Amino acid sequence: RDRRPDEHRPMREETRRPDAPLTPEEVAVMEVREVIKCLGTTTAEDCDLVSSQLELAIEERREAMGNHAMRMEWEARDAFKQVKQRLRQEAAGSVRQAIAALRQATPETLAALQRAVERKQSSLSEWLSPEDKEAVSEEAKAGLEAARLHIERLAADHARQVLRRLANAVTPEALEHLRSELEGALGEQGDQMGAEHAKVKEEAERVLEAAKARVLQMEELRAAAQKEVEKHLNTVKNFAADVAHAETEVQRVSEAVATAAANEESLSPDDALEAAKLCDEAVESVKRALDAAQEQGHQLGAAMAPRLGLMPPGAAAPLPVHAARGRRAAAVAGGASGAVRRGTGRR
Length: 347
Prior knowledge:
Elements: H1 24-38, H2 47-60, H3 62-65, H4 69-103, H5 110-123, H6 130-167, H7 172-188, H8 190-193, H9 196-262, H10 269-304, H11 318-346
Helix pairs in contact: 1-2, 1-4, 4-5, 4-6, 5-6, 6-7, 6-9, 7-9, 9-10, 9-11, 10-11
């Protein structure tokens, strides 16, 4: 029984007629082989059950199988040996799969994944060879260490993301908000950072000091810019008053010229020249106001260019409007002066 029975050959089914009924010996062999096929899909949990069923099937049909009983025992042993080899490989692979998931653990899932690895090692221990047991045990330790390092990196990366945003803060409100968020990250996840905690804390102190200095500098620039804005807004108001005064003068002179034109025949040459002189003075007054407006506009633009966004919306908009009003006033005064001079020339 310990040697493979080579003298027993497989049944030669080709010598049997197709319509011939199966012999009891053939039926018994086929039934045992159906049980052997079940070993191909068995798992570690039901392997013992299928093995017991196979032994029972062979014993119950030993007499019916006759000379083929020993051969079927050898076939069953070969199949069971292959199943054991497959289950050992699957057991080691299942444990390594749990270890791979452990390597990517988060603080919330670390404990559960660690227990899952331990359960796999315990439940599949009988299917692991001594070499596999030692190998997966070392891999589990390395996986746990890798998981801890992974969690440390996640916690440190979260704090460093806050530091990068803090480095770009330019307002006191943003600085205060990000400082609170940074303190929360260092406090809640400080224990998870491990060796990175000291490095991150040092970086946080350095970035926070730099952010405070930058915010203070921006506040000073904003205050200075606000003063410049107020100064130029006053300039715009003064210019508007000058243009309004020039318009009043032009209106007064235009009315005088209209009256003179209506009484052109009765107007003496001296009076006509005096009216033309008044028109010229009004034109010069408006031109001076226009020149001052242009210069003030250039100054305002140069002062505000480095401080975009600091000037109130529409603060400089009145400049073009006042300039257009001044140009119209100058044209009216110039036309009035020309009309008076033409009338004086005819006389």
